Amino acid sequence: MVENIQVLDKRFKLYMPESVIQEEVKRIASEISHDYAGKDVILCPVLTGAYMFATDLTRYIAFDPDISFVRYTSYEGTQSTGVVKPLLPFTKRCQGRHVIIVEDIVDSGISMDYMIQELKKLEPASISVCTFFYKPGNFQKDFKIDYVGKEIPNDFIVGYGLDYNGKGRTFKDIYVIDE
Ligand code: IMP
Ligand code: MG
């Protein structure tokens, strides 16, 4: 396991090793398996950050949900721009079904709030939010977060799908900025 990494112009140090991440993923998967047994479920992972989490999650979920990726962006560098752009929106497949939005991290909540409003227009049977990380100190919205891996302080992290300007996503451990 590497303790320190360099991503573009910034240094990062180890924050959460793969073993801990995987235990959290298994816990969330068993909660979802229990809550949605026998239901018509569609998982909507948010590209690009949630790709690794969503992949691991589906390995441990006890049923066989449909998968439909979406893509909405708001971030530049280490700051949210506050303006959400739909690049690959939800589709009509969500209508009348139980939709679980899968995110890498909920920070201000602006992106997720926007996605929930977009999804509501398609009249799904239910919407729930599943995120690996949650930064309550930055949260500005009031939607409910149904499944959380870990609450963290307002520090910038990379790895396990999370990026800094497009880099650092593919590490299987998570690293925090080292200032
Ligand atoms: P929000 O709209 O402020 O909640 O931002 C959510 C999005 O910002 C996430 O899907 C991530 O792509 C990105 N983001 C927020 N915090 C971090 C971080 O610490 N590292 C990498 N990306 C982050
Ligand atoms: Mg994201």
Quick structural summary:
It contains 3 helices and 11 strands, in the order ββαβαββββαββββ. With 179 residues, the protein is of the alpha/beta class.
Characterization of this structure:
By secondary structure, the protein is α/β, with parallel strands linked by helices. 22% of the residues lie in helices and 37% in strands. The protein has helices at residues 18-35, 51-60, 110-120; strands at 4-7, 10-16, 41-47, 66-67, 70-76, 79-88, 98-106, 126-134, 147-151, 157-158, 174-177. The strands form two sheets. Strands 3, 4, 5, 6, 7, 8 and 9 form a seven-stranded mixed sheet that branches. The longest helix is centred in the first third of the chain and has 18 residues, at 18-35. The protein binds inosinic acid (IMP) and magnesium ion (MG). Inosinic acid binds at residues 49, 74-75, 80, 103-112, 156-157, 162-163.
Number of strands: 11
Look at the structure and give the mean pLDDT: 95
Order of helices and strands: EEHEHEEEEHEEEE
Overall 3D shape: globular
Could you name the key traits of this structure?
single chain, 179 residues, alpha/beta, seven-stranded mixed β-sheet, 37% strand, globular, binds inosinic acid, binds magnesium ion
